[in-house]
């Protein structure tokens, strides 16, 4: 498991290591510089570096790194921007050490001084130590101009901790921000490196320890599941087992013209390892639903090619003996579906994943799901999330953490917001998932995720585990599909086809 911490938590950890344990803060800074040096050796083992430092501790990291390279014979050019009287003690000390080592940084007070200092042709890379997690307002004036000149130089930039201009808690950028080739972040991942637009500024991410041995008193702010975490959360198949050992999934999905959504969800559930999958469908669509031999179908009374309250009896009969239900893909807009879903939520005490039209239908009617006695997972994309919360879509995109927290709080369900970075909140801390690729922005991709999560719920995972492991498998299978077929040509069925490879990778990670 990789942990994600907010800037203020990082500050608390840093402060406690220093105050409670007597760890000198200069040692932490030196460790940060050494960690960054390791990354630089990987990316740019040769060449000359331009260092742009602020007067806070991020600047101190930069000055320490410059000195480490200089003492190893690498050529460095170092600039400091900011007010000298505001310099943090550790930054000042590193400035003194650097000067004793023979390098005098250039103070930059205006762009004329910058132009005299910076000559991209004379260097091979830039190091950004201007602002780190202490950023508390957008870059303005000289800082914005320096950053935009750094970006315009087209030299590769290594950002220390976080690209200057990106807010560590949210990934938001207002104005200029460093467009990094890579970012080395210290000790723990920060949300701003995971969430857009910050993620797009950070480039390749390196998380490196700096010797902080303390843990936050309130617990970590977030976590990222890694292959071994996912592998160990999914119960292994055992010799002495049968199909009922792996869960029976009921899928309630599809309508005239959208039966494919139901089939994709059902097939995904099966490929995600469920023992049995039953696809409930409007009666007239049964021939279409019955296309996959391994999937059982359950024709239901219908309302003009759609589910509706008329279907209730059949749906309840189908749900009997199931271990989880997937509700939503392709259900369409028939208004009586709302009552149908309400009845299912009230009368059936098994885990449920609610997605797509299932979510849209239930806008305003998703309270108290935490009291059901079995988990509910909600998987909206940002537009659906905005409708569910009555927020503007832009507000959801700006702050997906607040959005999942609000949805979880209002409904009691596990909330997963889809996106390039998926954010999940159920009981416990926030979960982030970074896998997947733009090739997965294709019809039916969400239905596949629903099916996978349905299978994992049926296999006994709780809401958070099913959502996190489901997002991981979905992303991994999507990445494998893209590697084989390319992002443009891959389709949702290809993600399903690569679930096999994704499970194999998990097995390798576990062994
Ligand atoms: N565990 C830790 O907390 C450690 C932190 N270290 C480094 O310290 C950094 C945090 O240092 P600081 O808290 O000193 O903060 P920064 O160095 O990020 O920023 C310095 C100061 O600049 C000012 N400022 C913020 N936004 C500004 C803006 N837009 N324009 C002008 N001034 C602005 C603020 O007053 C802020 O305190 C981390 O990102 C990391 O690089 C490392 O030295 C090692 C240990
Ligand atoms: K930085």
Number of helices: 21
Specify the CATH homologous superfamily of the largest domain. Ribokinase
Helix content: 40-55%
Structural class: alpha/beta
CATH architecture of the largest domain: 3-Layer(aba) Sandwich
Strand-residue proportion: 15-25%
CA-to-CA gap between the ends?
16 Å
Low-confidence stretches: none
What would you call the shape?
elongated
Stated plainly, the CATH topology of the largest domain is called UDP-N-acetylmuramoyl-L-alanine:D-glutamate ligase
Number of strands: 18
Number of domains: 2
Q: What spatial order of strands do you see in the largest sheet? A: 1-9-18-17-16-15-14-13-10-11-12
Largest sheet: 11 strands, mixed
How would you describe this protein?
The structure is a single chain. This protein has 511 residues and is α/β, with parallel strands linked by helices. The chain has two domains: 2-222, Rossmann fold, CATH 3.40.50; 242-510, UDP-N-acetylmuramoyl-L-alanine:D-glutamate ligase (3-Layer(aba) Sandwich), CATH 3.40.1190. The protein contains 21 helices and 18 strands. It has an eleven-stranded mixed β-sheet, sandwiched between helices. A seven-stranded parallel β-sheet has the order 4-3-2-5-6-7-8, sandwiched between helices. Strand 16 and strand 17 form a beta hairpin. The mean pLDDT is 97. It binds ligand NAX and potassium ion.
Give me some keywords for this one.
eleven-stranded mixed beta sheet, YjeF_N_dom, metal ion binding, Bifunctional NAD(P)H-hydrate repair enzyme, Rossmann fold, NAD(P)HX epimerase activity, 21 helices, binds ligand NAX, elongated, binds potassium ion, alpha/beta, UDP-N-acetylmuramoyl-L-alanine:D-glutamate ligase, seven-stranded parallel beta sheet, 2 domains, ATP binding
